[in-house]
Amino acid sequence: MQLLGLGRNVLRRERRDHQLARVVEADRPVSALEGVLQVGQGLVQLVHHCAVLLTEACNVGLTPVIKPDVPALTRGRLVQVDQGYFRAENISAASGLFIEAQAKIDVIRAWGGGLVASADGVRFTVPVQTLYAGSNPRYFGLRHKGATWLNVVNDQVMGLGGVVVPGTLRDSLFILDAIHARDGGPKPEIVITDTASYSDIVFGLFAICGYQFSPRIADISDARLWRTNAAADYGPLQPVSNHTIRLDRIRAHWGDMLRVAGSLTLGEVRGHDLIRMLSRDGKPTGLGDEFAHYGRIFKTLHLLQFVSDEGYRR
Question: Using CA atoms, how far apart are residues 31 and 93, in angstroms rounded to an integer?
């Protein structure tokens, strides 16, 4: 049986209850399976873990792998393994091992260094009652609700993680949360998205957290370019840069802005909730206005690079 053969190739270790198994041979891809296991007392037969992993990967349910005459593959045992071991934190730990292992492959390193990430959402209709579902007739019809899976993928074509967004709320509000909660890999330097309901505040929050926010702006001809010196001559850009960034306001509230960045990075506050607090009725609050001015610096740089650099546009 293939599952038995796979189970024999996986290193089995003894751990106490509620302790995450550690992979000791990073160059063996199958050994990353141990990252999803919480091993109880004694040696664990890994056949049932491999069976549940197969059903999760193929989205076929447990029925195809149930074997009543095999103790490790009975329905009761597989349900116990599915509910007890395949939890979100265990799967996240295993994903981190896969991200680390793939980055060591030569052809993968030729694709990129893992410092560019792309975030996008996939929408699904949710047929059951849940807090994670929201209404949107355009995508789910008049009688159904749905959710958006916001996924982050790096330039090594590896998924870094994601978050579930209720309904179709603005993706940009959740991108920071998804990146800060990624399963593994280096911290991205550039985050590419679609228009994602971007705003000047979003640009500011990404910048102060150390990310270059690079949305593909739909109506780029209507976007404003900002200047930092009202008296300077910007040459060909003079007619299109009529608005001035208030650097004095940024300096005056820089301490508060750094505290916000620290709270975001440490996970003390979610980016989605913070952005909502920085604006009220569509208008920025006092601190939100400072973040907006700060974000306009990086939005202007993004627009100029997008227009002048073909490689950046691609």
Answer: 13
110's CB contacts (< 8 A; 6+ apart) are none
113 pLDDT above the threshold of 70: yes
Alpha-carbon distance 204 to 201, whole Å? Answer: 5
In angstroms, the Cα distances linking 71 to 2, 17, 117 are 16, 21, 44
- Please tell me the least confidently modeled range out of 100-109, 151-160, 217-226: 217-226
Tens-digit pLDDT profile for residues 189-223:
999 988 766 788 989 999 999 999 998 887 777 78
pLDDT digits (tens, 9 = 90+) for 262-284: 998 888 888 878 877 888 777 88
HEC string for the chain: CHHHHHHHHCCCCCCCCCCECCCCCCCCHHHHHHHHCECCCCCCCCHHHHHHHHHHHHCCCCHHHCCCCCHHHCHHHHHHHHHHCCCHHHHHHHHHHHHHHHCCCHHHHHHCCCCEEEEEEEEEEECCCCCCCEECHHHHCCCCEEEEEEEEEECCCCEEEEEEEECCCCCHHHHHHHHHCCCCCCCCCEEEECCCCCCHHHHHHHHHCCCEEEECCCCHHHCCCEECCCCCCCHHHHHHCCEECCHHHHHHCHHHHHHHHHHHHCCCCCHHHHHHHCEECCEECHHHHHHHHHHHHHHHHHHHHHHHCHHHHC
- Stretch among 96-105, 233-242, 269-278 having the lowest mean pLDDT: 269-278
